[in-house]
Amino acid sequence: MEAVSPSVTNAPALPHDEGGQWKPLDLTSLESRRRLVAAAGGLIRGVRYGALYYDLEWRFREQSDWSGALVYAREGTGGYGAYAPFVRQSRPLPFRLGEVTVASAALQRYTLVGEPLLAENDVRRAAERIEELLGAIRPRLGNREALFFEGLPTDSPTYRVITTHDDVERNYLVVQLGAPFDHQFIELPATYADYMKQLGSRSRQSVQYSERKLERDMEGKVRAVCFEDSGTLDRFLADAEAVSRKTYQWNVLGLGLRSSEFEQRLRFAAGRGSLRSYILYCRDVPAAFMLGYQYGDCYYYTDVGYDPEYANWSVGSVLQLKVLQDLYARDNRPSLFDFSTGYGSHKGRFGNLARREANVLLLPNTVANRLLASAFLATERVSSAAVSFVDWLGLKARLKKAIRRFSTR
Fold this sequence. Notes:
With 409 residues, the protein is of the alpha+beta class. Helix content is 40%, strand content 28%. It folds into 2 domains: 9-182 and 358-371, 3-Layer(aba) Sandwich (Aminopeptidase), CATH 3.40.630; 189-334, Aminopeptidase. The chain is built from 14 helices and 18 strands.
C-alpha cells in the first residue's frame, strides 16, 4: 500500500512566516473569530490530509461559544505563518484490561488532530517552531490538563520533536496511547469501476457477493439514503441513533452516535452543503449508518455503526460500496476518502493509501503526573501481557466476540 506525503502541500497560496513568537489568540468576539478564519485560510487550503480538523468553524460554528478553543499562531505575510488550533475536551485517561475499562483518571485534554501547520518547509526550522510552541503552551497547563496529538504522523517534525528533544522531556511526560497505526485513505481513481479493479481479487469478490446476497435475502428491498439537508436531518439522527444504541461501541465503550452531541454540527454542515451522511435500509429498517462530510476535495467518514442482527450480511461493507457509488455519481465527487484516525480491518480492506500515525499525550512533568503516567503504563503492560496470554491459548477471538455479543443484547 502506498504511503502518503506530508500533511501540508507546497501550494503557492501558503503564507510566509515572518518570525516573531507564538501567541495565544483572543477568540471572545465574533470579529476575532472571523479574523482567525480569514488568516488561517491560506495554511488550511495547503493541507491535503485532514484539512477539516483545522477549520474551527466546523467545531464551534460561527455564533457559538469558542471558549473551548486554545489557538496559537505566528504572524505571517498573507495570513498566519504557523497555526495550532487545540480544542479542550473532558476525556478521562482510561485504565483498561483488554477492551474493558477498569478505572479512569479525570483529565482535560487540549486536542489537535494531526500536527501544527507551518508555512516553513525546512526541517530544522520546523523543529524549532514546534519546540517553541510546546514551550509557550506549558505555563498555561494545570496538573490535570494535557496536550493530546491525535493521529500525529510518525514521520512529522512534531512527532520527532516530541519523542527525541530533551527540552520537551523536561517540560512534559510523553505517553503514547496504544501502538502506532496506519490511517487509511482511498485515493479515488477516475471511475468506480477503476476503484473496484484496485481491490484485491478476494476482497472484491467478497464484498460484491455480500452486496448480491443482501439484495437477494431482502427480496430487493435494500437502499442507501444520503441525508444532506436540514429538512431530513431529524430522520437521519433518529434512525442512526437507533442503530448505534445496539452496538458494542455504545454499550461498552460509551461511544456511538448520540444525536444530542451531533445535531448542531450536522445542521451547520447541512447549511454549508457539505453534509453527506448515509443509512442503509433493509426492508425499510435501518441496518447501518455512516456519518460523514465532504470538505473541499475530501470525504470524511467520522462514525459508522451497524445493527448486530445484520452481521451475517456484512451490511457495513455493503453500505461502504453504496456510499462510494453515490459519491462517484456526483458532479463534485471527492478525490480522497478519509477513514479517520485509528485502524480497522474494514478500513484496510477498502483503503489504497496509508499514513503511519500515533496518538500522543503530553502531561505536564509534575510529581503527581509522573505517578499517574507510571500507573497507566503499568496497567498497559499488564493488559498487553494478559491479551498475549489469551491469544496464546487461542481464546482471544472467541472471548472478544463473546464480549461484543453480550454487550449488544
